[in-house]
Specification:
The structure holds two protein chains of two kinds. By secondary structure, chain A is mainly alpha-helical. Chain A is built from 17 helices and no strands. Chain B contains nine helices and no strands. Classes of the chains: A mainly alpha, B mainly alpha. Chains A and B meet through α6, α7 and α8 of A and α9 of B. Chain B: Belongs to the NqrDE/RnfAE family.
Chain lengths: 408, 214
């Protein structure tokens, strides 16, 4: 009797135990269970929800690994142990073991805490409510470490994950019923609860907060600071980075969001695996471009001068907006979340366009929230069902008209 | 309760839990969101509502047979307004700082749904003694929730209770702050009050099967 068979027998034997959902969650994650249909008129698909989730995680792995290198790279640049990797993706200054190890030991705990706490809550809820453990957290758990600053304290992440999973998802009925994207709920919670850890020039580079405390304590060291490009622009300073660096991702920012190139690759992978919606990705890029062009036009026609506090971000060339901040990451991995996005094709165009449009709007007009994409996606998550409703109603009306024309 | 008959006692006891004005009837939410960032403000607000609703209910109950039903809302408003002005003036005279914190919300007791709700639903149809008990019971039920919400919001949001730094000093890094704890700024924002009220409703409903609706 093989391992697979004995696992199945074990499951049969303990059918009425309370902890069974916890067991079968791990069981089905590793093995195809015996209860699948083998004949009859069922539609057979090879991928269940777990496979879908795994595909999204695969698309994010390059960003994660790049994030580890980048975390170390930003740190080493600041302490003067690395040279700037000039504009080339395969720069030997960037892909060093020293860079990777710093990032690895910093980011691995974030991943462990995110998965440990989040799945723990999923398991507890499944056992209390007596249903199978839902797979929804698999992707959320990987998204969360990618959208936080590298120096975030672990306990804050744990608190935010508890909040996001319980209030953002479980109270609505679990995976598939949530209104808001759970990963963004977690990030929004962190942002409003602990703003000093989520913005400013101290949190994006590993060790900056620690160094500041040492300096306050009397140590004779240089301060580490690394502002995100959006942070600098919002204060009217120069971006300070080459466009190529923005595209390749050699810039400070949340762990996974910096490399537009790798996000683009992940996005293509999702589109070809037919898991991410290309309509949403494309239309939200369009929305951002339209808003960016409007702002550029406003600057060009001289309505806004350099004395305005919006000048820095408004005069940013329109296509730079797509490269900086979390826009690319949010659009590809978070706006496309099939649960919280619009379901209808026409709805997806509207939804995506507004995500992009509002992202840039918030980015420019509210310096207190230098990254607008989080709030834009959350806002559009709320509106997604409304958009769908009107798209469906519009369709119904059109067909009624056609029917009338036919019968008349 | 030897003083009260069983029926009268229920008037006080029910609103505290199974018929709570905030968590069950979902009335008076606005003030629960606005003034629960500090425990002190919540306590003062609760006492003010206790005063207004207790006396208001008696006054309306005494007049219930002479108020023409067409203008009863206006009469009720005048009674509340008179009582609220008394509360407001007393606060301004004896607790000026606090009345500034509560600002417009003392005045807004007039529009607190609990008060008009109890006038309409109870005082217009019951005698003064029972109306008095009902007023006390409902405002206590309101106050209990307000104080629970304010307790958590002030403790987690500012690290203080009634202004006393119970968790240590965040700037000097004493108490729990020495271990890297930080105040949760989100707790001080109004959405979090709504979520805390929601959690209380959730806990209450899952403990009491009679409240579960399909």
């Amino acid at each position: 009797m093989g391992l697979k068979e004995s696992l199945h027998n074990f499951k049969e034997k303990n059918k009425d135990k309370k902890w069974l959902p916890a067991f079968s969650a791990i069981h089905t994650f590793l093995y195809l269970p015996n209860e699948t249909t083998h004949n009859g008129t069922h539609i057979k698909v090879a991928d269940d929800l777990k496979r879908t989730m795994n595909t999204v995680i695969m698309a994010m792995v390059p960003c994660l690994i790049f994030g580890m290198f980048n975390a170390g790279y930003q740190h080493n640049i600041q302490v003067g142990e690395a040279q700037a990797a000039a504009g080339s993706f395969f720069s030997s200054e960037f892909w060093t073991m020293a860079n990777f190890m710093i990032g690895f030991w910093k980011i691995l705990p974030l991943v462990i805490v995110s998965y440990g706490v989040g799945l723990g809550i999923e398991f507890i809820f499944a056992i209390i409510k007596g249903h199978e453990v839902e797979e929804g957290y698999l992707v959320t758990g990987m998204l969360v470490p990618l959208i936080v600053p590298v120096d975030i304290p672990l306990w804050m992440l744990a608190v935010a994950v508890i909040f996001g999973v319980v209030i953002g998802k479980e109270v609505f009925g679990g995976t598939g019923m949530n209104i808001l994207n759970p990963a963004l709920t977690i990030r929004a919670f962190l942002f409003f609860a602990y703003p000093t850890w989520m913005s400013g020039d101290k949190v994006w580079v590993e060790g900056a907060v620690e160094r500041t405390n040492e300096i306050v304590g009397g140590a004779n060291l240089d301060a580490i600071s690394g502002e995100t490009i959006l942070g600098s622009l919002a204060q009217g300073k120069e971006a300070g980075y080459e466009v190529m660096d923005m595209f390749l991702g050699f810039i400070p920012g949340s762990i996974g969001e910096t490399s537009t190139l790798l996000i683009l690759l992940g996005g293509l992978f999702l589109v070809f695996a037919k898991i991410g919606s290309w309509r949403i990705m494309l239309s939200s890029a369009l929305g951002a471009i339209v808003m960016g062009l409007i702002f550029n036009q406003v600057v060009d026609s001289g309505w806004i001068t350099e004395s305005s506090k919006f000048y820095g971000l408004m005069s940013t060339t329109w296509w730079h907006h797509l490269l900086i901040g979390g826009f690319a990451f949010g659009t590809v991995f978070m706006a496309t979340d099939p649960v919280t996005a619009s379901q209808t094709n026409k709805g997806k165009w509207i939804y995506g366009f507004l995500v992009g449009f509002i992202s840039i709007l918030i980015r420019v007009f509210n310096p207190a929230y230098p990254e607008g994409v989080m709030l834009a996606i959350l806002l559009m998550n709320v509106f997604a069902p409304t958009i769908d409703h009107y798209v469906v109603q519009g369709n119904v009306k059109q067909r009624m008209k056609r029917l009338k024309a036919k019968t008349a | 309760m030897g003083l009260l008959s069983k029926k009268d006692a229920a008037l006080i006891k029910d609103p505290l839990a199974d018929d709570n004005p905030i968590t069950i009837q979902v009335l008076g939410i606005c003030s629960a969101l606005a003034i629960t960032a500090e425990l002190e403000a919540a306590i003062v607000m609760s006492i003010s509502v206790l005063f207004v609703l207790g006396i208001g209910n008696v006054v309306i109950s005494l007049m219930r047979n002479i108020i023409p039903s067409k203008i009863r809302i206006i009469v009720q408003l005048i009674v509340v307004a008179a009582l609220v002005i008394i509360v407001d003036q007393v606060l301004k005279a004896f607790a000026y700082e606090l009345s500034k914190t509560l600002s417009v919300f003392v005045g807004l007791i007039i529009t607190n749904c609990i008060i008009m709700g109890r006038f309409e639903a109870f005082a217009l149809g019951n005698g003064p003694w029972r109306s008095f008990l009902d007023g006390i019971g409902n405002s206590l039920g309101y106050g209990v929730i307000l104080i629970i919400v304010a307790f958590f919001r002030e403790l987690l949001g500012a690290g203080t209770l009634l202004g006393i730094k119970v968790l240590g000093d965040p700037i000097e890094k004493t108490g729990v702050y020495a271990f890297g704890y930080e105040n949760n700024g989100f707790m001080l924002l109004a959405p979090m009050a709504l979520i805390v009220v929601g959690i209380i409703i959730w806990v209450q409903r899952s403990r009491n099967k009679a409240l579960i609706e399909d």
